Amino acid sequence: MELYDDDDDEGGGDDGDDAIEVEDDEQFEESIPSANGKKKMSKSKSKEMGETTKVFLPGDKMEDGDELTYDSSAYEMYHAAQTNAPCLSFDVIPDSLGDSRTEFPMTAYIVAGTQAPPGKQNHVIVMKMSQLDKTSPSDDESDSDDELLDEEPDLDTAMFNHTGGVNRIRHSPIPNRHIVATWSERGKVHIWDISQQVISVDNPSISAEASHSKDIKALFTFDGHQVEGFALDWSKTVPGRLATGDCRKNIHLWSPVEGGSWHVDQRPYSAHTDSVEDIQWSPNEQNVFASCSVDKTVRIWDARAKPTKACMLTTQAHDADVNVISWNRNEPFIASGGDDGVLKVWDLRQFQSGVSVAMFKHHTGAITSVEWHPTDSSVFVASGSDDQVTLWDLAVERDSEADGKGRQLDVPPQLLFIHMGQKDIKEVHWHHQLPGVLISTAESGFNIFKTISV
């Protein structure tokens, strides 16, 4: 399916997101126009695996004539979407369709921010991906299941203009409202109400108009950082509370006030000595948050203390910039990923020892995203600039009986799955209402998939 923004550009630069496409399974085919300004993709057949196929691992040598193709049997679901301008950041929008949904076809809502080329207009885009079917039916599935697989994936969008590229975007857990915060490359943090955009993607009669870019007013804007940043996280225990960190090492805390506005503490938390790259609030303690930095550290803060004394714990976490962290919802663990391509897991009960409880060196490029599974406390996902999304399970141990059988793979036993096919992957997130479903964004677009591993 393709959606075209044929809105005339009246100033403010060209539209940097005038086409959005959905790809079913693995490759584009000729699009077929349909109603409501949409175009549906014709189904493409998965390539048959040849007799000489073998498992490819990053680092393997490609011979002349070799061709990479994905193994559809490794996925329960695999679809892709593409925006005209890449999105560095996105977040999953919670919906009212129910939790723990496992039936196909699936539906997912996300919000993303673009990084358009210079002179192009940037956007915040709300997307509804629906009719997301299984990759392929099994032999014992019924004819009715086969009929469901004939449905084409749909993408409905609503967007509005954003000044500057979106470095990071996060949906808040504020109940009964769809509030998001964006970090602009222009050095400002904005808070937006996207409730109307979410409504519009569910309503075909207004979705075509909403898909055209427009200007809306932010609920609140903070320009006190004065430089751009990437670190941003909403509190999971105090609705509306926010923390933001910038490239000058400063962190500011936000508190909601009556009337739908926010108060930002002008006193920065500045114990880091270089750019703050990521922030995570504790999932169960109201006043505790963690941060990571180019200064190679991960720090734990107590928001009840004065900013100059709020840094309670520090560890030299990596031998290079620490890019991302994720706080486990069920165990006292923090996962971190660095420019060195290393993933580490820290037990907060042993944090000051400076020794991680797990370390994995598989990625050959900087780690760009890491996130714990929402319910399985031993599983996490990571992405890297080496074009890999990797799935890990700390509970897995090496099987000595299987070591002598088949090809000996030089990978950690905890590595469950490697997903490839995207270029320059920036973020990956679990969908909390679709068990096992992952969404990733890259320079080449979005993937939404579910593996057979989790």
UniProtKB/TrEMBL annotation:
Which residues are in the EIPR1-like beta-propeller domain?
A: 157-392
State the PANTHER family in the record: GLUTAMATE-RICH WD REPEAT-CONTAINING PROTEIN 1 (PTHR45903)
SUPFAM superfamilies per the UniProt record, alphabetical: WD40 repeat-like (SSF50978)
Where do the WD repeat units fall?
Answer: 269-302, 315-349, 360-402
Biased-composition ranges for Acidic residues? Answer: 1-29
Q: Cross-referenced Pfam families, in alphabetical order? A: Beta-prop_EIPR1, CAF1C_H4-bd
Q: What SMART domains does the record point to?
A: WD40 (SM00320)
Q: Does the keyword Nucleus apply?
A: yes
Q: Which UniProt keywords apply?
A: Nucleus, Repeat, WD repeat
The name on file for this protein is: Glutamate-rich WD repeat-containing protein 1
The Histone-binding protein RBBP4-like N-terminal domain extends over 67-132
| Native species | Pocillopora meandrina
Q: Region labeled Disordered — which residues?
A: 1-64
Subcellular location(s) of the protein: Nucleus
User: Do the record's keywords include Repeat?
Assistant: yes
Gene Ontology terms describing biological process: ribosome biogenesis
Any one cellular-component term (Gene Ontology): nucleolus
